[in-house]
């Protein structure tokens, strides 16, 4: 068999639990590494003061916007590519991958130019107070310089994962993450660059990850080939990528808007509230990243087997991922609930207000961690099999449909407590909303499978 045939056989014949786990371990490591170096930024910057810690939360909404573009093109192309490889349409997979990569570079450059031209006005729009503003500006400018590389890296990462090459993706992401953690204290304290040093460390680490992953494509280690000559001139290819990636755009874009709304609501209660919610966001991102990573290992299994019409393996993969994910996040939720004050104290031990606000908010979010696997896997399943509109709606629920109304309603009713419990309420409502979509999907999948079995009998 050729390398492509071996990969197809592996994705459609290997026992599902072992295959999902094998693909998930590298993606979990990648996601945890990303979350850890984001936390490292928050930790080291927090040593500069409460206002500096708040600035990280402000700029996080900007990074979420950059990620929204990168994930839209990356997840859109990745999900499409996994189905194409399952159908053994390798040339079309090359076309989709190349188109997404160069489009990401273009949109990233557009974000750089637009963001830098807005200056301080953009930071105020994102929720920066006058005391947080100088720190936010210093941090944001270097993040904006790296927007093209960040967007393109998301595409390369997702294309590698979509073809079952998650280990290669992990190498690129993890190496950059380790470099970021090492450079943070050097740039912030030793070189005395302050909060700008944290952003410079992030920029260098992103460039290294990009170069490593691009090397894998150029050296032939990837089944999918990236070439400027393969970029499509057909609008239909762009529409397929964008339509499939819309759930990621909505999820990440709404995360950016939700962060702005959260910062604005928290700012009413001072810099301590902004800093506390920023720190909680990074901690919960670390916890949630393990589930996202596990789900990203699950996605190519679903994509390949759905494309190959192995619907029994699609159901197996979902059941396995749901059981493992629920058990894992339940344990982390209990640990996080118990250790919330201690975790907050790691960041701002000398600010009791930050610890109290953050500990309550974190405990509230830990209560609904056990429900998140249903939401995550629903979104990923619908996106992978091409049910873009269902996936887009589900991905919009957590940070949009429910969070945005709640972040204005609950603080009006309960004050600061309303700010702290908004994410919890949104997570639980999202869980309830996903259940009928899943029931209908698996009912349709069973009908499609029965129809496929009936066709040979008719002939």
TrEMBL record:
Pfam families tied to this protein: MatE
Location of this chain's protein in the cell: Cell membrane
Keywords: Antibiotic resistance, Cell membrane, Membrane, Transmembrane, Transmembrane helix, Transport
Membrane topology: Multi-pass membrane protein
Sequence similarity: Belongs to the multi antimicrobial extrusion (MATE) (TC 2.A.66.1) family. MepA subfamily.
Stored NCBIfam families: matE
InterPro entries for the chain: MATE_fam, MATE_MepA-like, MATE_MepA_subfamily, MdtK-like
Regions that span the bilayer: 20-40, 52-75, 96-118, 138-156, 168-191, 197-219, 253-277, 283-308, 320-340, 360-380, 401-419
Predominant localisation class: membrane
Organism encoding this protein: Neglectibacter timonensis
Keyword Transcription carried by entry: no
Descriptive protein name: Multidrug export protein MepA
